């Protein structure tokens, strides 16, 4: 079974440009980059060539240097070595795991200019220094980021695409879903638990067994740890320390990442490269404090004050909880039935961060502690540009429990009222509007 990915429609539009650029699909390991590129190649081209640089022969690799200035010979040997007929403007050549052989990436400039065929590159860790050392990054590259499956893609995979269309219409009309809200929340909790890694989703569809799904996710986490040990040269121990600390940090009421939890002597400047490595590897989503919140949030980013979310909430659950099958079955049951007493807040915040990143939003929050005036003490989970008025900002609060207060949101609205457009509160209940706050069911974060 192939999962339908929304990126596919973007690939169709790119193909219509007739080879003006090569396409670089970047993303974390195991998010489905190669699978999507191959499906596209098989469906949309007369022939295709896949060169996987994790297993490519020395003979294949030598073509990129030996015949770089003689493309007729280059294509002749590509065709011969892969036993594939190349068709003018109807063949796609895929450079898979291109970060492992940067010379192939450098040749893209000349291949695109030649314009005989189309080119897709896939890779992870593409910004890491050792993967771009001594090469000229081609300007003829267009980059697309591939994330884990979002909720719409999960609905497509599990046969609920019509339900997602209903959700979207109710969001546009700002009307509660009524009787079907509980059905959607159950599906969303399944998505929360399974996550968006394609292998995990396919296992869930095939077996409906959360223990087997958990094993798939733990295999992916093990792969990530191996990548850290292999590629984070010089500061791998710091990257692993941060990576392993994420669940503990998110489980606290105060979710800002505190290096003191790793070592009382730790300083940010010593760990900055490690945070950056995790971000470039797309294993985490960093959310920075905007200390003077207004339009142009990046201008007011405090890079020393951040929250660190996992890029996939399903992986966070497997990263956070005990690996014994009985324990995980119990946790799975509690999450799906909305009976998990502790740490539900960190899961909801993480999945909101994940959804906002899928929508190409940088992550910001607001936090201030004032010992002298409690009216100035407040924390807003996320800040975005107001989708209804781009000249304003929109605060987002996330509530996982059925009973909650809105004191921070009310204080924030009062203090920054001239800068604020619409305010949002994401919760487990149905849609409602009160005091100029949109109370949205958490699954509607997909539309923000």
UniProtKB/TrEMBL annotation:
Where's the DUF4143 domain?
Answer: 226-401
AAA domain sequence ranges: 21-155
Gene3D superfamilies on file: P-loop containing nucleotide triphosphate hydrolases
In terms of superkingdom, the source organism counts as Bacteria
Identify this protein by name. Answer: ATPase
Naturally occurring in which organism (per UniProt) = Mariniplasma anaerobium
């Amino acid at each position: 079974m192939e999962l339908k990915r929304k990126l596919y429609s973007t690939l169709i539009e790119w193909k219509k440009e007739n080879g003006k650029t090569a396409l670089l699909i970047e993303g974390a390991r195991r998010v489905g980059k190669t699978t999507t590129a191959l499906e596209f190649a098989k469906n949309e081209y007369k022939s295709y060539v896949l060169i996987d640089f994790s297993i490519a022969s020395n003979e294949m690799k030598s073509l990129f240097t030996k015949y770089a200035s003689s493309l007729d010979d280059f294509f002749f040997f590509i065709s011969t070595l892969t036993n594939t007929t190349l068709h003018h403007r109807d063949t796609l050549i895929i450079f898979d795991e291109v970060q492992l052989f940067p010379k192939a990436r450098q040749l893209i400039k000349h291949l695109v200019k030649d314009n005989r065929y189309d080119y897709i590159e896939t890779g992870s860790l593409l910004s890491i220094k050792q993967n771009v050392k001594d090469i000229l990054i081609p300007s003829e590259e267009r980059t697309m980021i591939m994330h884990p499956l979002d909720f719409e893609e999960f609905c497509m995979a599990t046969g609920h695409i019509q339900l997602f269309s209903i959700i979207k219409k109710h969001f546009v009309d700002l009307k509660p879903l009524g009787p079907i809200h509980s059905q959607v929340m159950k599906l969303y909790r399944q998505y929360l638990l399974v996550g968006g890694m394609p292998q995990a989703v396919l296992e869930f569809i095939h077996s409906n067994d959360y223990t087997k799904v958990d094993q798939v996710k733990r295999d992916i986490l093990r792969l990530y740890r191996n990548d850290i040990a292999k590629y984070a040269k010089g500061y791998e121990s710091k990257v692993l320390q941060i990576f392993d600390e994420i669940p503990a940090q998110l489980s606290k009421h105060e979710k800002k990442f505190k290096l003191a939890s790793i070592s009382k002597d730790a300083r940010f400047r010593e760990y900055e490269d490690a945070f950056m490595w995790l971000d470039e590897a797309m294993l985490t989503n960093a959310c920075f404090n905007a200390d003077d919140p207004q339009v142009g949030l990046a201008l007011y980013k405090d890079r020393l004050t951040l929250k660190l979310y996992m890029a996939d909430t399903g992986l966070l659950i497997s990263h956070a909880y005990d690996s014994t099958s009985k324990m995980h079955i119990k946790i799975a049951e509690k999450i799906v039935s909305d009976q998990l007493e502790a740490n539900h807040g960190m899961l909801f915040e993480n999945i909101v961060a994940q959804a906002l990143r899928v929508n190409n939003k940088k992550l910001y929050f607001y936090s201030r502690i004032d010992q002298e005036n409690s009216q100035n003490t407040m924390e807003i989970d996320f800040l975005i540009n107001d989708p209804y008025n781009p000249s304003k900002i929109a605060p987002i609060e996330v509530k996982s429990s059925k009973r909650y207060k809105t004191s921070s949101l009310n204080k924030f609205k009062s203090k920054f009222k001239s800068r604020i457009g619409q305010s949002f509160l994401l919760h487990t209940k149905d849609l409602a509007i009160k005091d100029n706050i949109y109370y949205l069911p958490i699954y509607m974060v997909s539309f923000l």
